[in-house]
């Protein structure tokens, strides 16, 4: 009987008693059986839509006034802290800066300030460059309500009078 292995088949030759090895045809890979047949999906035809080239002036003005923009170029090395100046279009009253950059903290801008200077620390391992005109957040004109701070005590504080020695 001829001997068989996983990849080859051994058959005797007619002239000699030695055997010759020939490759066996491999079956189709199991990968093709795993994927189902793909069907073509028909799409709806595209509809022509008009493109607005000039947005409404009110929304454009509002967008400009709400953005916080870098005033001057600042290069910050890793681990370094530098001040950065930000401005907006209409900083007439007290506003809140909601930062979109991880390095710049949220802040409150006082009345009649045209620019705000904030300390920025680069805590990453890469350098960071803030360029002139770069948008780094939005100004919010929400009403600020200041509340009295909570009165807190520490466990080390004495509230009662000391007692006599025991």
Model description:
The chain is mainly β and 166 residues long. The chain has a domain at 67-140: Deoxyuridine 5'-Triphosphate Nucleotidohydrolase, Chain A, CATH 2.70.40.10. The chain has 2 helices and 10 strands; from the N terminus they run E-E-H-H-E-E-E-E-E-E-E-E. It has helices at 31-34, 57-66; strands spanning 8-12, 19-23, 67-70, 74-76, 81-87, 95-99, 107-109, 115-121, 128-130, 135-140. The strands form 3 sheets. A 6-stranded antiparallel β-sheet has the order 7-6-10-3-5-8. It has a two-stranded antiparallel sheet with strand order 1-2. Strand 6 and strand 7 form a beta hairpin. It is extended. The model is unreliable at 52-63 (pLDDT under 50).
Secondary-structure map:
Blueprint: E1 8-12, E2 19-23, H1 31-34, H2 57-66, E3 67-70, E4 74-76, E5 81-87, E6 95-99, E7 107-109, E8 115-121, E9 128-130, E10 135-140
Antiparallel strand pairs: 1-2, 3-5, 3-10, 4-9, 5-8, 6-7, 6-10
Short description:
By secondary structure, this protein is mainly β. The protein is 8% helix and 29% strand.
Question: Helical content, roughly?
Answer: under 10%
CATH topology of the domain at 67-140: Deoxyuridine 5'-Triphosphate Nucleotidohydrolase, Chain A
Cα separation of the termini: 106 Å
Q: Outline, from the CA principal axes?
A: extended
Tally of individual helices: 2
Element pattern in H and E: EEHHEEEEEEEE
What does the radius of gyration come to?
37 Å
Low-confidence stretches: 52-63
CATH superfamily of the domain at 67-140: Deoxyuridine triphosphatase (dUTPase)
Strands of the largest sheet, in order across it? 7-6-10-3-5-8
Q: Largest beta sheet, briefly? A: 6 strands, antiparallel
Strand content: 25-35%
Mean pLDDT: 72
DSSP, total strands: 10
**SS class:** mainly beta
CATH class of the domain at 67-140: Mainly Beta
What is the CATH architecture descriptor of the domain at 67-140? Distorted Sandwich
């Amino acid at each position: 009987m001829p001997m068989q292995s996983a990849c080859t088949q051994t058959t005797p030759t007619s002239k000699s008693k030695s055997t010759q090895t020939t490759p066996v045809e491999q079956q189709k890979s199991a990968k093709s059986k795993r994927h189902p047949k793909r069907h073509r999906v028909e799409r709806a035809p595209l509809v022509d839509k008009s493109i607005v080239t000039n947005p409404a002036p009110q929304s454009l003005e509002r967008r400009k006034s709400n953005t916080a923009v870098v005033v001057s170029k600042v290069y910050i090395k890793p681990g370094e802290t530098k001040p950065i100046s930000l401005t907006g279009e209409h900083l007439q009253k007290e506003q809140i800066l909601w930062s979109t950059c991880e390095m710049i903290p949220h802040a409150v801008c006082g009345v009649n300030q045209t620019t705000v200077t904030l300390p920025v620390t680069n805590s990453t391992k890469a350098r960071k460059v803030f360029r002139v005109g770069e948008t780094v957040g939005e100004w919010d004109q929400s009403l600020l309500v200041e509340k009295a701070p909570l009165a807190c005590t520490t466990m080390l504080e004495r509230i009662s009078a000391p007692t006599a020695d025991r």
